[in-house]
Amino acid sequence: MSLPLRRPAVAAALLAPLLAATACGIKPTGVVESGAAARVAVARAGGSMAYFVTPDGHLVPAPQPEYTQGGPRGSVIGLLRGPGSAERDAGLGTRVPVTGEEAAEGGVAVAVTDRLEVRLPFPVAGLDPLGRRQLVCTALSTVDPLYEVALRGTDTTLPPARCDAGH
Amino acid sequence: MPRVLLIEDDPSIREGVALGLRRRGHEVRAAGTGEEGLALTDAFDPELVLLDLMLPGINGVQVCRRIRETSLVPIIMLTARGDDFDIVVGLEAGADDYIVKPARTAIIEARVRAVLRRRPDTPGRHGVEHHGELAIDRAGLTVAKNGERLALAPSEIKLLLHLSAAPEQVFSRQQLLESVWEHSYHADARLVDACVRRLRHKIEDPAHGPRYIQTVRGFGYRFGPL
Amino acid sequence: MPSRAPFGLRTRLIAAFLLVAAICAVSTAALTYRQARSAVLTQSQDTAVSTLRDQLETVALTLPLDQRQLQRVVDEVGRRGKPHPWVVFGEYGTLRASSADLGSPVSDVLTDTLRSQVSTHPHGAFQRVTDDRGEPYLTIGMPAVFLHNGAREATGAVLYAVMPLSTEQQTVDAMVQAAKQGAVPGLAISVVPALLAARSVLRPVRDMRRAAQNLGRGRLDTRIEVRGADELAGLARTFNETAGALEESVAELREAEARARRFAADVSHELRTPLAGMLAVTEVLDEDAEQLDPDTAKALRLISAETGKLAVLVEDLMEISRFDARAAGLNLDDVDVAEAVGKTLQRRHWDDERVSTDLPEGVRARLDPRRFDVVLANLVGNALRHGAAPVRIGVRTAPAPEGERLVVEVADSGPGIAPEVLPHIFDRFFKADAARARSAGSGLGLAISLENVRLHGGTLSAANAAEGADGFGGAVFTLDMPLEAAP
């Protein structure tokens, strides 16, 4: 006869994990992803967008109604104007040099081949990655996002990149 | 010489015992069965009966009872050791003593003489003594109760004489065996007890407890106190 | 068994039963509880996440958001918490809004992990947290995305809903309580079947122990009732078969022994009658021998003497047979022990310097005088024959729990009994000295003495005395029997 009593260790080994698995109450969890994000209706969603940067380093689109007809070039000019008052009130900033509208009108050019080449009136080698992403996404905001964008500054041309803002 | 009636069914014992006793001067008549023995009791008028307990036909105990109905002749039973129950029944039926077989003639003769000794050794006492309702005549060896003579067997009267000679003295059974029955010290106390029962039956008042022969627990018997 | 459990079988059985019951109850309760808890929580979480998503999808945004617009959205969504009321926090850039009337527009239970998760990876997400008081909350992050250029794209606005889980907490607590309340009486109730089961197992075991004890005490007809057809019943059946076989062989042995004893008794009995006749006439031979020629006289005396011995032997054999047949009984009488011992010695003419006695006066015993005489005569006779004079007899009484004892010691001055002989000294016809083929006794003296003492409820033992200062170093026989023998 092998009574469980004679093997208290076995009995304990059987019970312990069971009890551990049933700790009472509601325990905190880690972050659990649950379903898609909420799709909201956004006014002027089909038009030109300039992408600005939140304080925690994310890109946020802001419509540029004045440049809706301007295509990629208009969008980029809108970005180089810098955040407007509404954007600044919401804490949005930019990592791209703000040239002002006239300088932008004169200095920005877009060539379309198998990709978009955006010529900019400032050096691009020193742009931080956020700034590059701002420029790429803004340039692509009215065209097929599958295009690659090459940024060509006064100093050099950066390797072509795609916008990663949309999903 | 004493006339002895021997009732014994086994021829070799019958002849051997008879031969031995005759040589010692006894007049012996032998019977092989109880019926023959009873007939001889009347015809021969023995002074003593040696009675084998294991008899064919009517057995020794019955023979003993039948003799006692009419006679106070001393009766000695011949028994084998181990026939304990028969010994007790025989003693109750009125036998005075018993001998365990096999026994030498000297033993048998000693028993016979002891039983035949009529008077216990009680020196200096003569005449009739009165104890309550009992009148004991030591010389005549008779006992009367309320003037009526009692029929007592030899062992019974000897026991009564011995006890009454020293009233209120306690005698152990072994002492009584030695002095009344002339047995050795280590003999069978049932002889005494059976005799006391028979005696009480004859002299005591059945309505009350024993008065004359009293039992002293752990010791034995005494006469009185009245 | 390598180790013996400290408790009885019953305790162990019940404990095992309860342990199994407890494991079953606890594991069932635990698994049910886990399942139920997770079902309750999943239900609440899924409802809350999808409600937040649905509510957020009904609003239209104009980018970039300003404080007013964010507050409007937050208020609107904050009113429609499901399954419980919630507080909604909105974050956009540096803008913060809360649906709570009072308090901070920023929740203190939202974690940075949740924030970074929803902002870098725009999907709905939730996290269960506890505040500093230990109260559980469900926090949900729901980023607002919009369709731009054929792709879903984050607007940068994220709504967080914070919902207290107190209801779920209560439900879960209630389940724990129910499990506890169910398990404890359940365990208590399971004591009853545990006791019954232990009983049903232990009763046959107890029966068997009793039966084995009875068997050991010699009641060989002991059998166990066989109930059912389980292992215990099989054991009982085996026990019964074994007991039956044992009884049979013991009965056979006893039968054989009884036959042998009956034969001895019958032979003795048949010898006794002719001996009785012969013994009665030996004196005739002895007396007449003197007148015959010497050879005939010698022959006759021999016959006479041997007849006497034969008679003693047959008597002793008969006596032993009666002991064997348990037909021997005690004729008890009250005697003075000193007197009884004295008479034994006197009757055999041993009351001289060969035997010294130490007899306390006034010791009265209840015994069978004839048997006591036989025992003492045998012991003293044996001491004089095989040991050497002087023989010392000591009588004393000794207290004992069941009544006073009479102790008689018979010590001789001989060389003692050889150690290898000692265990057999009471055997029938045992001859210590092989050369002395025939002694004066029948060879049954000590055996008969032992039986006589046993009949009195006593013991008789033999030993050798240590060589003392008084010079005694011989054999010592000690008789120890109740002062008052029971009939």
From TrEMBL, chain B:
<dbReference type="GO" id="GO:0005829">
    <property type="term" value="C:cytosol"/>
</dbReference>
<feature type="domain" description="Response regulatory">
    <location>
        <begin position="3"/>
        <end position="116"/>
    </location>
</feature>
<dbReference type="GO" id="GO:0006355">
    <property type="term" value="P:regulation of DNA-templated transcription"/>
</dbReference>
<dbReference type="InterPro" id="IPR016032">
    <property type="entry name" value="Sig_transdc_resp-reg_C-effctor"/>
</dbReference>
<feature type="modified residue" description="4-aspartylphosphate">
    <location>
        <position position="52"/>
    </location>
</feature>
<keyword id="KW-0238">DNA-binding</keyword>
<dbReference type="GO" id="GO:0000976">
    <property type="term" value="F:transcription cis-regulatory region binding"/>
</dbReference>
<dbReference type="Pfam" id="PF00486">
    <property type="entry name" value="Trans_reg_C"/>
</dbReference>
<dbReference type="GO" id="GO:0032993">
    <property type="term" value="C:protein-DNA complex"/>
</dbReference>
<dbReference type="InterPro" id="IPR011006">
    <property type="entry name" value="CheY-like_superfamily"/>
</dbReference>
<keyword id="KW-0805">Transcription regulation</keyword>
<protein>
    <submittedName>
        <fullName>Transcriptional regulator</fullName>
    </submittedName>
</protein>
<dbReference type="GO" id="GO:0000156">
    <property type="term" value="F:phosphorelay response regulator activity"/>
</dbReference>
<dbReference type="InterPro" id="IPR001789">
    <property type="entry name" value="Sig_transdc_resp-reg_receiver"/>
</dbReference>
<keyword id="KW-0597">Phosphoprotein</keyword>
<dbReference type="Pfam" id="PF00072">
    <property type="entry name" value="Response_reg"/>
</dbReference>
<keyword id="KW-0902">Two-component regulatory system</keyword>
<dbReference type="InterPro" id="IPR001867">
    <property type="entry name" value="OmpR/PhoB-type_DNA-bd"/>
</dbReference>
<feature type="DNA-binding region" description="OmpR/PhoB-type">
    <location>
        <begin position="126"/>
        <end position="225"/>
    </location>
</feature>
<keyword id="KW-0804">Transcription</keyword>
<dbReference type="InterPro" id="IPR036388">
    <property type="entry name" value="WH-like_DNA-bd_sf"/>
</dbReference>
<dbReference type="InterPro" id="IPR039420">
    <property type="entry name" value="WalR-like"/>
</dbReference>
UniProtKB/TrEMBL annotation, chain C:
<dbReference type="InterPro" id="IPR003594">
    <property type="entry name" value="HATPase_dom"/>
</dbReference>
<dbReference type="GO" id="GO:0000155">
    <property type="term" value="F:phosphorelay sensor kinase activity"/>
</dbReference>
<keyword id="KW-0597">Phosphoprotein</keyword>
<feature type="domain" description="Histidine kinase">
    <location>
        <begin position="266"/>
        <end position="485"/>
    </location>
</feature>
<dbReference type="InterPro" id="IPR036097">
    <property type="entry name" value="HisK_dim/P_sf"/>
</dbReference>
<keyword id="KW-0472">Membrane</keyword>
<dbReference type="Pfam" id="PF00512">
    <property type="entry name" value="HisKA"/>
</dbReference>
<dbReference type="InterPro" id="IPR036890">
    <property type="entry name" value="HATPase_C_sf"/>
</dbReference>
<protein>
    <recommendedName>
        <fullName>histidine kinase</fullName>
        <ecNumber>2.7.13.3</ecNumber>
    </recommendedName>
</protein>
<feature type="domain" description="HAMP">
    <location>
        <begin position="199"/>
        <end position="251"/>
    </location>
</feature>
<dbReference type="InterPro" id="IPR050428">
    <property type="entry name" value="TCS_sensor_his_kinase"/>
</dbReference>
<dbReference type="InterPro" id="IPR003661">
    <property type="entry name" value="HisK_dim/P_dom"/>
</dbReference>
<keyword id="KW-0808">Transferase</keyword>
<dbReference type="Pfam" id="PF02518">
    <property type="entry name" value="HATPase_c"/>
</dbReference>
<dbReference type="Pfam" id="PF00672">
    <property type="entry name" value="HAMP"/>
</dbReference>
<keyword id="KW-0418">Kinase</keyword>
<dbReference type="InterPro" id="IPR005467">
    <property type="entry name" value="His_kinase_dom"/>
</dbReference>
<keyword id="KW-0902">Two-component regulatory system</keyword>
<dbReference type="InterPro" id="IPR003660">
    <property type="entry name" value="HAMP_dom"/>
</dbReference>
<dbReference type="InterPro" id="IPR004358">
    <property type="entry name" value="Sig_transdc_His_kin-like_C"/>
</dbReference>
<keyword id="KW-0812">Transmembrane</keyword>
<dbReference type="GO" id="GO:0005886">
    <property type="term" value="C:plasma membrane"/>
</dbReference>
